[in-house]
């Protein structure tokens, strides 16, 4: 069940941007994605699979922006942003990013890669809130595809969360690739985190594939915060903008 709002509130959105291409990889849709993200009026946006740079795409793809994708998405709407480079290859790199209407006090990208697999990271940001001495701690997450790798990465996430001040608000969001639905129990027992859709519906939301969502891969977790109106963004226009459905919730501090 949703908890009663209290004090300051903000809206959080999480979306896997799929490198700026449609779910079928046939069209470059980053400008459309930016419009759709803006229409949500989210205060803080958690982004996964965000392109930092790509030398070949910048030459061949029409409408490819001159700036990194996270800067292009943030332009004139979110005053601050952070980027954590994870996957690096000859043509460029991609990773997680966070867009914020509020100042980002500091950020770091923690490597949680398992040896011999695709690079993964936790983008941890400390955000200052208006008219408040509270610090909001946020972690943008994109975990691995294998169960054993996710288990190790969730342990590292719990270690980070347990290092934070115990009474300050925390929001963790992103693509957990947790089709077996093990993360809720691990994060609740290991770090006191609650998943917002599970609070309301008993289980995480279905988000993948976006057109016909079956798997519950994407999550928003909170600690020391109340929530209301957790919802999956409607299929249109989102179903062709990513292979994951975006999630949003109101956070009350």
UniProtKB/TrEMBL annotation:
Q: Where is the signal peptide?
A: none
User: What InterPro entries does this protein's entry cite?
Assistant: Endo/exonu/phosph_ase_sf, Endo/exonuclease/phosphatase, GPI-anchor_lipid_remodeler
Cross-referenced SUPFAM superfamilies, in alphabetical order? DNase I-like
- Molecular functions (GO terms): endonuclease activity
Listed Gene3D superfamilies = Endonuclease/exonuclease/phosphatase
The lineage's top-level taxon is Bacteria
Which keywords does the record carry? Endonuclease, Hydrolase, Nuclease
- For this UniProt entry, which segments traverse the membrane? none
Q: Could you tell me which residue ranges the Endonuclease/exonuclease/phosphatase domain spans?
A: 15-244
Looking at the Swiss-Prot or TrEMBL record, what is one Pfam family this protein matches?
A: Exo_endo_phos
Please name the PANTHER family in this protein's record: CALCOFLUOR WHITE HYPERSENSITIVE PROTEIN PRECURSOR, ENDONUCLEASE_EXONUCLEASE_PHOSPHATASE DOMAIN-CONTAINING PROTEIN
Which named protein is this?
Endonuclease/exonuclease/phosphatase family protein
Please report the organism this UniProt entry assigns to the protein: Erwinia aeris
């Amino acid at each position: 069940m949703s908890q009663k709002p209290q004090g300051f509130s903000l809206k959080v959105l999480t979306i896997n941007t799929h490198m700026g291409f449609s779910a079928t990889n046939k069209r470059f849709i980053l400008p459309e994605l930016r419009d759709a993200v803006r229409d949500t009026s989210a205060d803080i946006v958690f982004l996964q699979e965000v392109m930092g740079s790509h030398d070949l795409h910048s030459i061949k793809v029409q409408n490819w922006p001159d700036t990194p994708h996270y800067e292009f998405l943030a332009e004139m709407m979110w005053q601050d942003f952070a980027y954590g480079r994870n996957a690096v290859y000859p043509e460029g790199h991609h990773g997680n990013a966070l867009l914020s209407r509020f100042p980002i006090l500091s950020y770091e990208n923690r490597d949680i890669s398992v040896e011999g697999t695709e690079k993964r990271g936790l983008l941890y940001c400390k955000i200052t809130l208006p008219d408040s001495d509270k610090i909001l701690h946020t972690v943008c997450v994109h975990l691995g595809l294998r169960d054993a790798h996710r288990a190790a990465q969730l342990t590292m996430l719990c270690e980070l969360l347990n290092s934070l001040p115990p009474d300050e608000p925390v929001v963790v969001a992103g693509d957990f690739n947790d089709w077996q639905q093990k993360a809720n129990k691990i994060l609740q027992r290991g770090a006191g985190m609650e998943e917002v859709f599970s609070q309301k519906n008993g289980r995480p939301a279905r988000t993948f594939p976006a057109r016909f969502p079956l798997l519950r891969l994407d999550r928003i977790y909170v600690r020391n915060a109340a929530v209301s109106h957790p919802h999956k963004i409607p299929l249109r226009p989102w179903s062709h903008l990513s292979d994951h459905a975006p999630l949003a919730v109101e956070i009350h501090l």
